[in-house]
Amino acid sequence: MLAVRLDKEMGKQLEELANKTHRPKSYYVKEAVKRYLEKQTDYEIDVFPLCPNLYRHVPAQKGFCYP
């Protein structure tokens, strides 16, 4: 189980969508997380091999992997 705090506007939008579609709010939260994880996984597979130090705490260097 996971608890998520949304700001008022996002909570309002989610509530309205759930009411209009007769689906629970948790359905949309699960879908959002699922899509995010799919995108992030693709990103990790594509970018991480090119930038292995990207997620380490190392001093920033100029180049492809560092702004």
Keywords:
67 residues; elongated; 2 helices; mainly alpha
Characterise this structure.
The chain is an all-alpha fold and 67 residues long. The chain has a domain at 9-47. It has 2 helices and no strands. The N and C termini lie far apart (37 Å). The model has no long low-confidence stretch (mean pLDDT 81).
Number of helices: 2
Q: What share of residues are in beta strands?
A: under 5%
Helix percentage: 55-70%
Largest sheet: none
Q: Given the C-alpha coordinates, what overall shape results?
A: elongated
Radius of gyration, whole Å: 18 Å
Mean pLDDT: 81
Q: Please, what is the oligomeric state?
A: single chain
Strand and helix order: HH
Concise synopsis of the structure shown:
This protein is mainly α. It has helices at residues 8-21, 25-47. The longest helix has 23 residues, at 25-47.
How are the SSEs ordered, and which strands pair?
Layout: H1 8-21, H2 25-47
